[in-house]
UniProtKB/TrEMBL annotation:
Alphabetical keyword list: Disulfide bond, Endonuclease, Glycoprotein, Hydrolase, Metal-binding, Nuclease, Signal
Organism for this UniProt entry: Salix udensis
UniProt signal peptide: 1-23
EC number: 3.1.30.1
Protein name per the record: Aspergillus nuclease S1
Molecular function, one GO term: metal ion binding
SUPFAM superfamilies found in the cross-reference section: Phospholipase C/P1 nuclease
Family according to the record: Belongs to the nuclease type I family.
């Protein structure tokens, strides 16, 4: 009995923790990474293929949630998944991009800058030995998803909507989790027969048709910057 109680407690606390620790859910990240990989230049696609861990084959999507899995092993990486503002509806890199200890750059925008800079050393022969570029790739592709989840840039006081209870149809959830997973999962169920590949195809179609005019703007990163995370916030 004691054994089961302990186990049940563990499971319950893992479930409770889940909304706090997760970025987009698995399918949100998978979708982002599958689409991103399909749009890479030849050089970038080759680099990604080289850098992906063997078990991933050549599928970036399958390892897009790796950063969530290592969050406990690499505790230093936990603050890199989000940004907290001081309960105001605007964001300033210099004010907000820091962890709980006030260490600057330790937020999702800082991490995108960091891992982009690291990946640009690929094939340069220089500091390649200093950084694990496989990890840089897995972090970057995950954080590009996280920064687009609206509640990953949110109020410090409600932990990005993690302390706000709402109902999603019949289920009680925290607001953060609605954005991480429920919206995507419900859309998948209702519109795509629970098939994530069909959701991905539908987004791909929109990108090549309805949204084609917007793409140049998405791809522009001005003023010689290597990355433009502030634009996505
Ligand atoms: C940059 O990447 C290194 C290697 O993963 C990590 O130790 C460091 O905390 C990162 N810094 C930020 C701001 O992401
Ligand atoms: C780089 O990181 C990956 C994923 O954590 C790991 O499997 C691999 O062994 C690391 N490579 C080196 C050279 O440390
Ligand atoms: C595709 O674009 C249309 C028109 O903007 C929109 O209604 C639809 O929800 C989009 N589908 C996806 C999967 O993004
Ligand atoms: C971008 O960088 C190049 C080379 O470093 C420099 O010549 C150019 O003036 C820069 N452009 C802007 C807009 O800062
Ligand atoms: Zn995340």
């Amino acid at each position: 009995m004691g054994y089961w109680c302990t186990n049940l407690l563990t499971i319950v606390s893992i479930l409770l923790l889940f909304p706090v620790i997760n970025g987009w859910g698995i399918d949100g990240h998978l979708t982002v990474c599958r689409i991103a990989q399909s749009r890479l230049s030849k050089a970038a696609a080759d680099a990604v293929k080289q850098l992906l861990p063997e078990y991933a084959g050549n599928d970036l999507g399958s390892v897009c949630s790796w950063a969530d899995k290592v969050r406990f092993r690499y505790q230093w990486s936990a603050p890199l998944h989000f940004i907290n503002t001081p309960d105001v509806c605007n964001y300033k890199y210099t004010r907000d991009c820091e962890d709980d200890n006030g260490e600057k750059g330790k937020c999702v925008a800082g991490a995108i800058n960091n891992y982009t800079t690291q990946l640009l050393t690929y094939n340069s022969g220089s500091s390649q030995a200093d950084n694990n570029l496989t990890e840089a790739l897995l972090f970057l592709s995950h954080f590009m998803g996280d920064i687009h989840q609206p509640l990953h840039v949110g109020f410090a006081s409600d932990k990005g909507g993690n302390t706000i209870d709402v109902h999603w149809y019949r289920r009680k959830e925290v607001l953060h989790h609605i954005w991480d997973a429920d919206i995507i999962e419900t859309a998948e169920e209702r519109l795509y027969n629970s098939n994530v590949d069909d959701l991905i195809d539908a987004v791909q179609k929109n990108i090549t048709n309805d949204w084609a005019d917007l793409i140049p703007r998405w791809e522009t990163c001005s003023l010689n910057k290597t990355a433009c995370p502030d634009m996505y916030v």
